[in-house]
Amino acid sequence: MMRHLISAADLTRDDAVLILDTAEEMARVADRPIKKLPTLRGRTICNLFFEDSTRTRISFEAAEKRLSADVINFAAKGSSVSKGESLKDTAQTLEAMGVDAVVIRHGASGAPYRLATSGWIDAPVVNAGDGTHQHPTQALLDAFTMRRRLVGRDTGLGQDLAGRRITLVGDVLHSRVARSNVDLLHTLGAEVTLVAPPTLVPVGVETWPCEVSYDLDAVLPKSDAVMMLRVQRERMNAAFFPTEREYSRRYGLDGERMAKMPEHAIVMHPGPMVRGMEITAEVADSDRCTVVEQVANGVSVRMAVLYLLLGGSEPAVTTTTPAARTEENK
Ligand code: NCD
Fold it and tell me: Which domains does the chain carry?
């Protein structure tokens, strides 16, 4: 296992499957009345959020607390210090306080990489989303959700997503979720198709390990999972499509379009959803939409990542009873 988690592209198939299998173990903890493991007791993890977040921030915090870590939350919004300097200063402060791991979300692509390789800090760094670059734990929780739904909860262990057809739809240009998913899904053997208006397809996409289509209706019947992406208005500096209505008509998912998908196929969304834009309420609230499941799975996947990065060499979940453990220690 690597020291930091910066990009989904850095994960080998074995790393990814190990994280997904460990996350299955962690998910079992969520079914217990007391959802806590002593694994990271005495370790301090700092969540450094320079950009807005609801799901990811809460999910990391829940994961850290379930592993019994001490948690420091740092929301840097509103800071007027220039990015490079503030990151360095913040990193040195954290280092001085002796944090054991840093989870960072930043508007600048490359900020987590800088933090991990600068020498400012010695702790493992986990990228919780950087600019339009990467969001590896999102890709892992998406793969976990797909594996559970498409391969099977009990048979999924040790398995990848070989041959599954996954379609990502929408604002690929500005989406770190799309980039991370393309990388990880490719590593796991899935066949990925991107569907977007030509203006929202990144330059150089032909070098990505996936197909590109502009015709959603043609791709839907051949998809095992369809992931809708939010139009990232906050990252747009120009008009990329004529009107919202036109975007929805061509690239939005409504009930009629969803009916074209195979019966077993699922609809995914990383959240936050813009209902009425990329997805209608009918689809978002349907049984085929896994958005809430993705959030729940996110906690298990982040527990697995933190456990493995912080040197989990012992089993994460002990199955023996406390009495049996006392016996063993005699
Ligand atoms: C995504 C993000 O922030 O990259 N959301 C998330 O982490 N769940 C996607 C988005 O903001 O559209």
Answer: 8-134+294-320 (3.40.50.1370), 136-291 (3.40.50.1370)
